[in-house]
Design a protein that fits this description.
single chain, alpha/beta, four-stranded antiparallel sheet, 10 helices, 10 strands, 38% helix, binds adenosine-5'-triphosphate
């Protein structure tokens, strides 16, 4: 049995009086690619933010590598291998591609390894190599998404959290992003993917969770979910 890397237990998060997450349980095991799907406002992003400690929990807990993340700072978690690519990407727009990648390695001190990994990222994302001295803010949305993923990978994560990586991208870029997510997973990085593109997300995942109004309403094998009539009707537009 693979180790559980991430365990969310009875998680509740509110914004003032609004209960956004109402007791979520989910688990991510080593090597898995998990997709968390659900409609607008279901609470997916809120769940992701609580997992990385950037939003406080009202109740419940998040365990990473068997320990509660409560009281741990973002730096501690990244250092321990939990990296997140936020919705909207958040690249450093006034830095070049290469500088962004170097920033991604801020928890590391192995200079030679960092230089090697930058080259490795250029191998995975040739577009970034072509533009390595360009300011990130002048890149297209899809290119910025690739940069954000590459930057997160520079921290050598065990678990990568991706919040809607395909949002707002052209169909070709969407294809490329899903291809890269699958490749990164195949290289051994454990992934929790939040997506509104439920069909694509389930196609590449091992398991899936469906979130609705702050709760997990369904979970299971991703391929089975793809053929489930209820999932198809509610989330795959059929
Ligand atoms: P989307 O796919 O649209 O990003 P989501 O599933 O990620 O949706 P969340 O962003 O987690 O959903 O939002 C869950 C609920 O919490 C929504 O009702 C939203 O309006 C509310 N919410 C999110 N952020 C805040 C905030 N900062 N203040 C108040 N309410 C918020």
């Amino acid at each position: 049995m693979a180790n559980t890397l991430l365990k969310v237990k009875g998680l509740k998060v509110s914004y003032g009086g609004i209960k956004a997450v109402k007791g979520v349980d989910l688990e991510v095991k080593e090597g898995e690619l998990i997709s968390l799907i659900g409609s607008n406002g279901a609470g997916k992003t809120t769940t992701m933010k609580a997992i990385t400690g950037s939003l406080g929990m009202e109740d419940g807990d998040v365990e990473y590598l068997g320990q509660s993340i409560r009281g741990k700072g973002a730096w501690d978690l990244v250092k321990q291998g939990l990296a997140m690519v936020p919705e909207g990407r958040g690249v450093f727009t006034r830095m070049t591609i290469t500088e962004n990648l170097q920033m991604g390695a801020y928890v590391r001190s192995d200079k030679a390894g960092i230089a090697q990994d930058i080259e490795r990222m250029f191998g995975i994302f040739p577009r970034l190599k072509e533009r390595k001295d360009q300011l990130a803010g002048t890149m297209s949305g899809g290119e910025q998404q690739m940069l954000a993923m590459a930057r997160a990978l520079m921290s050598q994560p065990k678990v990568l959290l991706l919040d809607e990586p395909s949002m707002g991208l052209s169909p070709i870029m969407v294809d490329k992003i899903f291809e890269v997510v699958r490749d990164v997973s195949a290289q051994g990085v454990t992934i929790l993917l939040v997506e509104q593109n439920a069909s694509r997300a389930l196609q590449i995942a091992d398991r899936g969770y469906v979130m609705d109004s702050g709760e997990i309403i369904m979970s299971g094998d991703a391929k089975q979910m793809l053929t489930d009539p209820k999932v198809r009707a509610a989330y795959l537009g059929e």
